[in-house]
Amino acid sequence: MYRTKTCGELRIDNVGEQIVLAGWVQRIRKMGGMTFVDLRDRYGLTQLSFNQETNAEVFEKANRMGREFVLQVKGEVVERYSKNKNLPTGDIEINVNELTILNEAVTPPFTIEEDTDGGDDIRMKYRYLDLRRECVRRNLELRHKMAFEVRRYLDEQGFLEVETPVLVNSTPEGARDFVVPSRMNPGQFYALPQSPQTLKQLLMVAGFDRYFQIVKCFRDEDLRADRQPEFTQIDCEMSFVEQEDILNMFEGMSRHLFKVIKGIDLPKLPRMTWADAMKYYGSDKPDTRFDMRFVELMDILKGYGFSVFDNAAYIGGICAKGAAAYTRKQIDQLTDFVKKPQIGAKGLVYARIETDGTVKSSVDKFYSQEVLQQMKAAFGAEAGDLILILSGDDANKTRKQLCELRLEMGSQLGLRDKNKYSCLWVVDFPMYEWSDEEQRLMAMHHPFTSPKPEDIPLLDTDPASVRANAYDMVINGVEVGGGSIRIHDAKLQQKVFEILGFTPEQAQQKFGFLMNAFKYGAPPHGGLAYGLDRFVSLFAGLDSIRDCIAFPKNNQGRDVMLGAPGEIDQLQLDELQLQIAPKA
Predict the structure, then answer these.
(1) Please, are residues 197 and 446 in contact by the beta-carbon 8 Å criterion?
(2) Cβ contacts of residue 159 below 8 Å, gap of 6+?
(3) In sequence order, which residues have a C-beta less than 8 Å from that of residue 489 and are 6 or more positions away?
(4) Which of 82, 216, 331, 392 is the most exposed place for a label (fewest CB within 10 A)?
(5) Which helix (H) or strand (E) holds 47?
(6) How many other C-beta atoms are found inside a 10 Å radius of the C-beta of residue 13?
(7) Contacts of 312-315 spanning 24+ positions with Cβ under 8 A
(8) What is the pLDDT at residue 505?
(9) How far apart are CA 146 and CA 140, in angstroms?
(10) Alpha-carbon gap, residue 120 to 133, rounded angstroms
(11) Can you tell me the distance from the alpha carbon of 388 to that of 406, in angstroms, rounded to the nearest whole number?
């Protein structure tokens, strides 16, 4: 056997045992006639000691080793003279009497330590080395445990795990598809699934009743910290259910994960309508770890000669508790922050609540103390608080700007603690949103989402005001899951397609398989999909999902380790009957 124990399991009770270990050299410390080596495997670290006096041959061999050499050692477990309380194995070490170098290693391009000197690009190029770091390994172990507990919970609730195809048809409405040319069907293409949406609905038509799948999904869209071109969903669907059934089922799953993984008893999740989320937080995924809700000020601040406010369609602000000590320089930095092109505000108005309760504002010359006191009362502000105000000619745009300011203040004031979790359901989303690019209504979720039953008559008269039977689970300002009750009636589905601009022929061409299936008796059904990557990254306290994915892509969608995407040779292009157009 290459080993009888792992590098993480030996304790003081093992003193006197003869053991065999195998692993990688983490570090070497040479101290005259003694050399100490930290040996690492997936399970932990164990210190090895090599003594020149007792075994000169092995000692000399050890001194020729370098970092990341792969070793097998045999020796005796002894009590360590200088103990390390930070290591589970810190009470013991191994007096090595036999050393086998299983594989030598060149010097790695970065230190394989918790705090490495390798930047993102170099770590992604040598990801197999990055995965040796304990912090990255812990993330993947956490991912495994969460996936295991998801399967256990859903199995106990009667769900069946069913695999669906990876090569499917391309459908409109949503992100761009990744497409795959078909050699056997020249000029035709598969698409990689953005989600198994229609397939899981067909499983409900087939009578499977409760389905789930931990599944890869693919979307060709611009990347950011919580987005990858391929990602993993916990995809679920249920038959004969209403919205309340689904929320209760998957709130239970979240409660199970929090309890088992984090040791947290999650309280019943509050619910917030989409309209309130936008009104009070400027986001459909509000971070409710801290308050700082928006207060609208049009009725208080309009009509006093300050043209910026008098001409605005929206005036709103936030109250940062205890932030009145902000200096003018800090406020100028906040002003520069909201003026960034990606945020787009034109300026920032502030007001401090002084120790005597008076209000000192950057627009004092336009407003009396009486009016400023009305503003103070609207916020419930107290001495020491700082009020920050934005305005604009587009209410929704200004709310989004105020949302960015609120999150920035939350970060600056230490209110966004990664070890604190605030979860909620956002419900009653709009069915449609207007696309300036396409000049038409688009499905806010997807075209199979059911409208609220009471809003169905509005499909003929005012479709933009129709609410969807849709819901998202939000944790700490991150949408970790979302879903809806689906349309199960072919006539209603046809009506929705018409509103989205599909002719009957186009709808039949793209979705005929689903609409035809409905004719054979589709049960009422609905579902939800969690982003496993996002869920794991929240539990791990990460800012990006990349470090909870074994082999992620970079911000340009490239795998710099594999060199993907890459060119293919002319023979493959000819077989696929493809030509590469010249670059523009």
Answers:
(1) yes
(2) 210, 211, 212, 236
(3) 518, 522
(4) 82
(5) strand 44-51
(6) 10
(7) 312/391, 312/392, 312/393, 312/398, 313/392, 313/393, 313/394, 313/395, 313/398, 314/391, 314/392, 314/394, 314/395, 314/398, 314/399, 315/389, 315/390, 315/391
(8) 87
(9) 10
(10) 14
(11) 9
How far, rounded to the nearest angstrom, does the alpha carbon of residue 65 sit from its chain's CA centroid?
41
Please provide residue 154's backbone torsions phi and psi, each rounded to the nearest 5 degrees: -70, -35
Q: Using one digit for the tens of pLDDT, what is the confidence trace for 461-511?
A: 998 999 999 999 999 999 999 999 999 988 899 899 889 888 888 888 888
Which of 204, 201, 210, 276 has the alpha carbon at shortest distance from 246? 210
Residue pLDDT, tens place only, 194-206: 999 999 999 999 9
- Peptide bond just before 270 cis, omega within 30 deg: no
Do the Cβ atoms of 41 and 53 come closer than 8 Å?
no
pTM given for the model: 0.91
- Distance between CA atoms of 369 and 395, rounded to whole angstroms? 27
| Closest to 91 in 3D by CA, of 13, 4, 5 | 13
Distance between CA atoms of residues 329 and 492, nearest Å: 58
Query: Over the stretch 326-363, which tens digit does the pLDDT of each residue have?
Result: 999 999 999 999 999 999 999 999 999 999 999 999 99
Work out the angle at residue 224's Cα, subtended by the Cα atoms of residues 120 and 556, and round it to the nearest 5 degrees. 60
